[in-house]
Amino acid sequence: MNTLKKPQIGLVGTGFIASGFARLINNHAPDLQISSVLTRRPLNEAGDFPLTDRLTHSVQQIIDGSDVIVECSGDVLHATDVIDQALRAGKPVVTMNSEFHVTTGSYFADKGLLTEAEGDQPGSIAALREEAIMMGFKPLVYGNMKGFLNHTPTPEEMAYWAGKQGISVAQTTSFTDGTKIQIEQALVANGFGATIACQGMQGPKTADVTKAAIDLARGAAERGEALSDYVLAPGNAGVFVVGTHDKSEWKALNYLKLGDGPYYVLVRPFHLCQYEIIKTLRRVLAGGGVLLNNSSKPTISIVAIAKTELAPGTPIDRALGGFQVRGEAAKIEESPNHVPIGLIQNAVIRRKIAPGQIITFDDVDLPDTLALTIARQLYS
């Protein structure tokens, strides 16, 4: 690691997350420096990105000039190519890209230092888990909170909400149709050796997060294994971990307002995305290990489910955040030959697909990419 000058950070992406992270480093981290920023946009069309003088189209440039790579492009195929090159060059990689992890990330889990960052829900759950274990809790549930769910939103609805929230239509759609939370909780399950109760998870709707979280913990205890799941709780945000503790600690935990047990709910009522990446970046720079990755032996994947009838020859221009397919977490052993949704970008339908059908490798023609080669090894 470079100790003679400011640590140099190579940034991949120029969207909402990358822009916010770049502003944070530039304005509030004088001991760090962004050396270069990889973009696929024309260099003179970066919108309001704050460091236009550091934009490049060269992967080699960011690798050569950086001590750590921060990848937050949100693109599975692109991230796979860049991370492959970075790890081959011996550079540690910090991501905010759960889509990458649950599609091809397991291939790289033992090939260098690769970690998801705190800030998005999986990293925030990972940080809360670390704190819980240090305090003696034994996690049973790794939980996420979602405020709204509509499996088949319309383009008009998504355009309205994207404009109102200041993020892309694709991001808005993947949040609304549930694909993003499915991806996030699959990453958490794989990273911590947990499982899911059923395809798509349970996702109970509730006005009482603590009660619903304890109900999930009871189910996990009955199964004898930790669960990754979420609650549909309008008006709430954040993540939670439910765990048990030593019976002898009951009085103290009750006094500290955690209830009667035996299941205790720890809540982190926020996740601040790009603003928290720096915490994991500093962890890596200080010699710390992985916060979270998809593990080298995943058990959960994200199957692609048709939202509408898809005829032979239909192109899938956007899988994540599109209007043709959505994703659900599923056990790999129960979903033979499925295509992980992150791969279906730029695919062409080979045979008729009915609404609600899971798409398999036999159903689509996929572009020849490194991500496809890796996914066939992991999921076929």
- Could you give the count of β-strands? 15
Write down the Rg. Answer: 21 Å
The helical percent reads 25-40%
Q: Structural class of the helices, strands and pairings?
A: alpha/beta
Number of domains: 3
Order of helices and strands: EHEEHEHEHEHEHHHHEEHEHEEEEEH
Strand content: 15-25%
Rough shape?
globular
**Order of strands in the sheet with the most strands?**
3-2-1-4-5-6
Distance between the termini: 38 Å
Task: Briefly summarize what is shown.
34% of the residues lie in helices and 18% in strands. With 380 residues, the chain is an alpha/beta fold.
Structure commentary:
The chain starts with 7 loop residues before the first strand and ends with a helix. The mean pLDDT is 96. Helix 4 links the parallel strand 5 (93-95) and strand 6. It has 3 domains: 8-119 and 275-285, Rossmann fold; 121-271; 300-379, Type Iii Antifreeze Protein Isoform Hplc 12, CATH 3.90.1210. The chain is built from 12 helices and 15 strands. The chain has a 6-stranded parallel beta sheet with strand order 3-2-1-4-5-6, sandwiched between helices. A 4-stranded mixed beta sheet has the order 8-7-9-10, sandwiched between helices. Helices cover 34% and strands 18% of the residues. The chain is α/β, with parallel strands linked by helices and 380 residues long. InterPro entries: Asp/hSer_DH_NAD-bd (IPR005106), DRL_cat (IPR048423), NAD(P)-bd_dom_sf (IPR036291), SAF (IPR013974). Residues 13-99 form the Aspartate/homoserine dehydrogenase NAD-binding domain. Residues 303-364 form the SAF domain. This is NAD(P)-dependent oxidoreductase. GO terms for molecular function: NADP binding; oxidoreductase activity.
